[in-house]
């Protein structure tokens, strides 16, 4: 059985379907989705429908992303959130325009069911963004950190490689888990196009909401699969720019 971790999808369903084919995903595989299923390309509703169906036939773990939480809040309250609309919410709102209440309620159930983090039996942690508590995720004070934090990734990138793990200046947060898998901050910001590893943190977000591809990584072999740039599936759209 493979454990395959998948980065931020941002409504790019066609890229996800291509990726699942490329990696020849079977029902034996454990798929861990790192969140941000919506906000970006035009297929927010279709993406959630697809994931709900996939959950019925495959072994899936769905992590909560900040965009999933924003979308859920909008579905629940109907309240307009300027920041959300600016960061991909506009395409999600459009996607839901003609959707019936039964479907909306199924989607709200799906979005409610997302997990803030998943820790496997080999001490590998999966979450959308990060955590701040030096004792680990069980002690996190603000659960929003799990899907908003950028300091864990920033820390991993900044760790002085000459510092040994035994040195008491080594960041404690990076010693708590064997490996940490995140999305949230596209690696394109540091000029990368493939999932990037820094210290024990693996960032799988390759900017699918923007110009990048969607990526998947086998956590045991570290083999990587990528879709075509997601923008190429939606040639008339701008994504999140
Ligand atoms: Mn994202």
Chain-wise SSE layout:
Layout lengths: L2 E4 L6 H10 L7 E4 L10 H14 L1 E4 L3 H12 L4 H14 L5 H12 L4 E3 L4 E4 L17 H4 L2 H8 L20 E4 L13 E3 L2 E3 L11 E4 L5 E3 L15
Parallel strand pairs: 1-2, 2-3, 5-6, 6-8
Antiparallel strand pairs: 1-9, 4-5, 7-8, 9-10
Helix pairs in contact: 3-5
Structural commentary:
The protein is an alpha/beta fold and 241 residues long. The protein has seven helices and ten strands. It has helices at residues 13-22, 44-57, 66-77, 82-95, 101-112, 145-148, 151-158; strands at 3-6, 30-33, 59-62, 117-119, 124-127, 179-182, 196-198, 201-203, 215-218, 224-226. Strands 3-2-1-9-10 form a five-stranded mixed sheet, with helices on one face. Strand 7 (196-198) and strand 8 (201-203) form a beta hairpin. The mean pLDDT is 96. Bound molecules: manganese (II) ion. Residues 8, 36, 65, 67, 183-184, 205, 209 line the site of manganese (II) ion (MN).
The strand count comes to: 10
Name the overall outline. globular
Classified by CATH, the class is Alpha Beta
The fraction of residues assigned to DSSP E strands is 5-15%
Task: List each distinct ligand once.
Answer: manganese (II) ion
Rg over CA atoms, rounded to whole Å, is: 17 Å
* Count of runs of 4 or more consecutive helical residues: 7
Strand order of the largest sheet: 3-2-1-9-10
Helical fraction? 25-40%
Count of separate structural domains: 1
Mean pLDDT: 96
Major sheet, described briefly? 5 strands, mixed
CATH architecture: 4-Layer Sandwich
- The CATH topology comes to Purple Acid Phosphatase, chain A, domain 2
């Amino acid at each position: 059985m493979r454990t395959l971790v998948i980065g931020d999808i941002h409504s790019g369903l066609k890229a996800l379907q291509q990726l699942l084919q490329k990696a020849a995903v079977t029902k034996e595989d454990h798929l861990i989705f790192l969140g941000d299923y919506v906000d970006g390309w035009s297929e927010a509703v279709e993406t959630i429908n697809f994931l709900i169906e996939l959950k019925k036939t495959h072994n899936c773990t769905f992590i909560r992303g900040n965009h999933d939480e924003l979308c859920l809040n909008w579905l629940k309250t109907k309240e307009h959130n300027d920041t959300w609309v600016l960061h991909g919410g506009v395409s999600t709102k459009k996607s839901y325009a003609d959707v019936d209440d039964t479907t909306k309620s199924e989607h709200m159930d799906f979005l409610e069911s997302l997990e803030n983090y998943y820790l496997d039996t080999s001490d590998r942690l999966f979450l959308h963004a990060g955590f701040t508590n030096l004792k680990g995720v069980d002690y996190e004070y603000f659960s929003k950190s799990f899907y908003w934090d950028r300091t864990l990734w920033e820390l991993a990138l900044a760790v002085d490689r000459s510092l040994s793990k035994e040195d008491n200046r080594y960041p404690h947060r990076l010693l708590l888990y064997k490996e940490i898998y995140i999305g949230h901050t596209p690696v394109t910001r540091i000029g990368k196009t493939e999932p990037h590893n820094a210290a024990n943190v693996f960032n799988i977000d390759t900017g699918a909401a923007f110009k990048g591809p969607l990526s998947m990584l086998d956590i045991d072999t570290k083999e990587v699969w990528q879709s075509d740039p997601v923008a190429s599936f939606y040639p008339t759209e701008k994504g999140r720019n």
